[in-house]
Amino acid sequence: MSLNTKKISDWGLGLDKPLIISGPCSAETEEQVISTAKEIAALGKVNVLRAGIWKPRTRPNAFEGIGPIGLEWLNAAKAETGMLTATEVANGSHVEACLKAGIDILWVGARTTVNPFSVQEVADALKGVDIPVLVKNPINPDLGLWIGGLERINQAGITRLGAIHRGFSTFEKTPFRNLPKWDMAIELKRKYPDLDIICDPSHIAGNRDLIPYVCQKALDLDMSGLMIESHITPSVAWSDAAQQVTPSALKDLLESLKFRSADASTPGVENKLDSLRKEIDNLDDDIFQKMSSRMKVADQIGEYKNDNSVTILQVGRWEEIVNKRIALGKAMGLGDEFLDAFLKLIHKESIRRQNVVMNSAGDLAGK
Ligand code: PEP
Ligand code: MN
Q: What is the value of pTM for the model shown?
């Protein structure tokens, strides 16, 4: 089935690529929404103000959103700054409240896209309405489910439609809160070239430090925009405190990003060397990701050894690792000397970290 969608530039809202959406994870108070909005509007680069009004929280007893009063705060912020407004809808009554309040753009969250009943309820509430809708990927890496969500909204008559890549839940601990699957976003783009896909680096990263990397990666892959959570005082945010950035950090971030022209990043236009280098960069990213996961497991071993009074270094185990790994590495075409040095380095770092865990000496990042 094809999707009948309009590009962001044809939404009639004066928007274009790159679409920059920012604002708090959750609307908390009128003062927090308005002050955040004013400061990010002053940067002159943010087109749309976001704020969650109803928050799908993983565990109960967390802050579950301020409710419809927050829609009025979004409207007040719009009147003050001229920015368009966007919020998340997860059921029919959310849609009705947003339409009544005159919110400009809606998005379907990851925890909603995953459930066809919920998406259908949102789609039914949107029948006969003309409002732009962005559909986040489902929390599990299922492209069909993401497409299904887009189709349901599209079949309700919404043509001002876009997608948001916000990463995927994993049981395995990774450096990301939600693991990005760039290949899946690219595949979605390949299937629906007219569908704009933006990236939500905040929910992918889960922490402020990784956000610039995720943003640049998304832009380099020709994504159509970014949704970045910002908060006037992130450290005291009522949700997602670790990943929200201050308006001034947002300014630095947006100034540091390279917004490349579409032509230069279109496959085929770039030369062979560039594309091979990109491939190397991607593989290096994967290696770092795996190393980070590996070291987190080493930390857990450190905790176990500490609790059970076992020494850090266990020579027998180390020899076993080296022998097995060198044989495997050689079978994969890697050189002896490289394998030996590489394994020693990894081992040294594991020992250093276990020392930190067991003796509280220094910190894990080696600072
Ligand atoms: C959000 O945007 O604040 C949110 C809840 O995101 P997601 O649906 O990606 O978890
Ligand atoms: Mn959030």
A: 0.84
